[in-house]
Design goal:
The structure holds two protein chains of two kinds. Chain A is α/β, with parallel strands linked by helices. Chain A has helices at about 20-35, 50-60, 75-90, 105-110, 120-140, 180-190, 200-220, 240-255, 265-270, 270-285, 285-295, 295-300, 310-320, 330-335, 340-349, and strands spanning about 1-5, 40, 65, 70, 95-100, 145, 150-155, 170-175, 190-195, 225-230, 230-235, 305, 325-330. Classes of the chains: A alpha/beta, B alpha/beta.
Chain lengths: ~350, ~550
């Protein structure tokens, strides 16, 4: 199993840290030194995901650097294609593009991006449009025309064509929590990020069969689609530290569970009622009450809870059969414990 | 006079290849830009080819005459442009592969442009001709042998092509982005009556002008084009440090096939003083939050040295290249875009007091705490927009911190139309016109001596003719009473008579549009003309200038003194 790590700590953690440029450079070099296989940069905390990816690329030589994920629709396909193409060139082929849709409300009301249609078919068009653009960048000449319901690409004067690169097959991966997106990943994409709220049971029953339906449709193999997992973890050097971290992960889980688009995994695990109770609280911004609605039992269903020493083994036990790559939002305390990190990477890989 | 050659090594017998090549009807349609061909007799034919060099596209008819026919070995021909002063020759040669059972097929071509533009066009056309030869031979090869794979080009060739290409880009990129000044903006509100600019404005900036240049085209092949070996963060970092050391006040990035924000992140890391801005980022394909997030991070990383430059581009590029919708005229939409950005920044600055915005085109009404990056040290990020028409200029005056003028804006037009509109906008918002940084990028024709200056005039005439033929820019020509020139250029461009267009650009017109002087007199002349109007001047660096650090440093010092 490949092991990757988030470059920044998650904003739901106790001390959310969004380092400056020097901090990102240092963190990236350290991640590479520690033997991780890659870095993942989310679009979280109100920050752009591509800028840290660029800095990480600049300061590393070996590891994969990916967005996980960048929100697609607020950036038109060409904006995304230019970013990905530059990153792939800068990195000598170490960049991978992770895309997601976010939900309607976040698109319309936060990103000021129109939500013109259900996200699945639209993202499918988006990915196909990106591929037409990449082909045009690589081959030059007349654009590889793409026309679909949601996206059109039919103009590329040479003047604006960035030209070919050494590693033109930029891997595209999509975030998924439902069947449509999983099938689409199987049909068109190089990998899938099941949402952190997906449990092993939900994966087995829903995600994996849908991916297989997609690969079958496209005549591909299931192994063409990398499974990239970002499980929620609650960890600490001891039980006391674990207890301290719990509310932060509960807040995150409560937020996810309040989102109706993520209710599939809740239903599978018998927590749909909790999700329905959480939804109105999130609309009212009652974040503290949401934490209280997430029981320890619910937390352990959706997250991996373990001490630093046990975390690697526990993750492997839970996800070893499924994951090609596992990403971790490591809390500061774990990051700063070099020996624990090494044991942890060894246990997983 | 580009002279090019391309050879494909094929795994099929020589007679098969010859059988295909001997009949022109087989392979003529495979040629780059092929439109039609007509066989006149055994030796002669007429070909129509559409070529695209930079933003210019032209259709040329060639008269092809076969001059040599060696059965099984070669066909040589001459070519002559019927509607262009082009001559050339070429050959297709077939031979046994060295030590292999296969066949080599080689295409040679030489093209020479005559006429006043010859020396310039001959420089520019090289990559196109090379690509044409590559593609024709490759197409013949793949038609005959579907498994044929075109090998990568030798590195030196790639270097040469992208060097020449980058030179073209560096010259035309700044003007081209101005096309974002879409026609629709002009139609939204009528031009205000030309009124003289206030004295205060005219006095501005005589002594000292800020000067900026492009971050990403310092050396040929650096960022655009096909030279991965020579690109990347390390090169951008080096360039940024060099330009900062030369004394530039600002470094900016165009959006011509690459993301404009990324190089700024690298420059922020590797410089300490210069301002860094997009010049310009195309707004609508990114929603306000996407730009706001990038800007906020870049502003923090650079310690307050970032500015956002935005432009709209035209409808066709938005819809067909960016795959971005164009639901309504760009002017009012840009106005809301800027308002929405400011609301987002206010919300980042004061997470406890979200400043929501609801417009016709953009909404920002949600900001959960986990998505708010929170306050930064220099939260007032300057917003610039590119402008040529009064609507955008007024918008800059009302809401923005700076205005990036299109190179086609003459001094007279700038003073009487643009600045008047900026002032009207500023007045509406209760601001002072001096709050707005006016950045100009006038056309410059220069060289080490008079001969070089003269030589560069031809290139500039062509470029000005190209822009002046586009109706988007006719407002400037009208201002000077040259509407007939604009219409004449437009007519010629429609008829495809590109070669004749520069003839309509008289010395008088050229003088009005460009600052013309040898290196030693350039900056005094630039300051004399523009110093009273601009606060910042954009100085594009030609390849020759890039080679001479002392020269550029001298320019910067003179602009500052």
């Amino acid at each position: 199993m490949r092991v990757e790590v988030g470059l920044m700590t998650h904003p739901f953690q106790e001390n959310p840290v969004w380092p400056g440029i020097d901090g990102i450079a240092e963190a990236a070099r350290k991640v590479e030194d520690q033997g991780f296989d890659g870095i993942l940069v989310p679009e979280a905390g109100g920050h752009d995901p591509f800028l840290p990816v660029l800095v990480a690329i600049e300061h590393t030589k070996r590891i994969t650097v990916r967005t996980g994920i960048a929100v697609a629709f607020p950036r038109s396909p060409l904006v995304m294609a230019q970013l990905a193409w530059d990153m792939q060139r800068f990195s000598g082929g170490r960049f991978e593009l992770g895309l997601g849709t976010q939900v309607k409300g976040q698109n319309e009301r936060r990103y000021a991006a129109p939500w013109t249609a259900p996200p699945g078919p639209r993202l499918r068009d988006y990915v196909r449009c990106l591929k037409a653009m990449f082909k045009t960048f690589q081959e030059g000449g007349a654009p590889a025309k793409f026309e679909s319901e949601h996206y059109t690409f039919s103009l590329m004067p040479e003047f604006f064509n960035p030209g070919p690169i050494d590693h033109p097959d930029v891997p595209i991966q999509v975030a998924a929590v439902n069947k449509y997106m999983s099938r689409m990943a199987g049909e068109l994409c190089d990998g899938i990020f099941p949402h952190p709220i997906c449990t092993p049971k939900y994966m087995r029953e829903t995600i994996v069969p849908a991916i297989e339906a997609g690969t079958k449709k496209a005549g591909r193999s299931a192994s063409d689609v990398a499974m990239l997992l970002s499980p929620m973890i609650v960890t600490g050097a001891n039980q006391q530290e674990i207890e301290r971290m719990k509310p932060f992960v509960k807040q995150r889980l409560g937020f996810y569970a309040s989102t109706r688009a993520y209710h599939g995994p809740l239903e599978t695990e018998g927590y749909l009622d909790a999700g329905k109770q959480l939804f109105p609280l999130s609309m009212e911004g009652k974040w503290q009450e949401m934490i209280e609605l997430v029981s320890d039992e619910m937390l352990e269903t959706f997250a991996t809870v373990a001490t630093h020493d046990d975390l690697g083994a526990k993750l492997k036990e839970r996800w070893g059969d499924v994951a090609d790559t596992i990403h971790l939002d490591m809390p500061i305390e774990l990051r700063s414990d070099e020996a624990a990190v090494r044991r942890f990477v060894d246990a997983l890989s | 006079m580009p002279e090019v050659s391309y050879t494909a090594v094929m795994e099929i017998p020589r007679p098969t290849v010859w059988d295909f090549v001997r009949d022109m009807n087989n392979w003529a349609p495979l040629a780059k830009g092929y439109q039609t061909h007509e066989i006149l007799n055994d030796r002669e034919s007429i070909w129509t080819i559409k070529g695209e060099v930079g933003p210019i596209s032209r259709t040329t008819k060639f008269h092809i005459t076969i001059t040599e026919w060696v059965e099984g070995e070669r066909v040589a021909f001459t070519l002559e442009g019927l509607n262009e002063p082009i001559t050339g020759e070429g050959a297709i040669l077939i031979s046994d592969s060295d030590g292999e059972a296969g066949t080599d097929i080689r295409g040679d071509a030489t093209l020479t442009f005559g006429g006043s533009l010859g020396p310039i066009l001959n420089q520019l056309i090289g990559p196109w001709v090379q690509q044409g030869a590559d593609e024709l031979v490759t197409a013949i090869a793949t038609t005959l042998q579907p498994t044929y794979v075109r090998p990568s080009r030798p590195f030196f060739l790639v270097r040469w092509i992208s060097g020449a290409w980058n030179f073209v880009k560096s010259i035309v990129s700044a003007p081209f982005r101005g096309a974002e000044e879409a026609q629709e903006a002009a139609t939204v509100e009528p031009t205000p009556a030309a009124t003289p600019a206030p004295d205060a404005q005219i006095q501005k900036g005589i002594a000292h002008m800020n000067v900026e240049t492009l971050l990403v085209t310092l050396s040929p092949g650096q960022y655009a084009g096909a030279t991965p070996e020579n690109t990347g963060p390390a090169k951008i970092a080096e360039t940024a440090r060099q330009l900062e050391a030369m004394g530039f006040d600002g470094l900016t990035t165009p959006e011509t096939g690459h993301d404009p924000f990324l190089p700024i992140a690298i420059a922020a890391e590797h410089t300490t003083r210069v301002s860094l801005g997009t010049n310009v980022a195309i707004a609508f394909p990114r929603t306000p939050m996407v730009v706001a997030q990038m800007a906020w991070d870049l502003q923090q990383w650079s310690g307050g040295r970032f500015n956002i430059g935005l432009g709209t581009q035209v409808k066709g590029h938005n819809e067909r290249r960016y795959s971005a919708p164009w639901p309504s005229p760009p002017g009012p939409r840009m106005r809301e875009y800027v308002q929405c950005l400011k609301a987002i920044f206010n919300t980042f600055k004061n997470p406890g007091q979200p400043d929501y915005f609801s417009g016709e085109h953009y909404q920002f009404t949600l900001m959960p705490p986990f998505f708010n990056p929170g306050p930064i040290e220099h939260p007032d990020i300057p917003i610039y927009i590119s402008a040529l028409n009064p609507y955008m200029a007024r918008l800059a005056g009302e809401l923005c911190d700076g205005l990036r003028l299109h190179p086609l804006a003459t001094l007279g037009y700038t003073k009487e139309v643009v600045i008047a509109a900026v002032e009207a906008g500023a007045k509406k918002a209760g601001r002072d016109v001096s709050d707005i940084d006016l950045v100009g990028s006038p056309f410059i024709i220069t060289g080490k001596d008079d001969a070089e200056v003269e030589a560069n005039k031809a290139m500039m005439k062509q470029q000005i003719a190209f822009y002046a033929s586009t109706r988007t820019y006719h407002r400037v020509l009208e201002f000077h009473g040259w509407s007939d020139v604009g219409m004449g250029l437009h007519r010629l461009s429609v008829e495809g008579k590109w070669g004749e267009m520069p003839n309509l650009i008289t010395e008088e017109i050229l003088e009005e549009f460009a600052v013309i002087a040898t290196y030693d007199k350039l900056i005094p002349k630039l300051k004399e003309r523009w110093g009273e109007v601009l606060t910042t001047v954009f100085l594009g660096l030609s390849p020759a200038m890039q080679q001479d650090e002392d020269l550029v440093q001298g320019f910067v010092q003179q602009l500052h003194s």
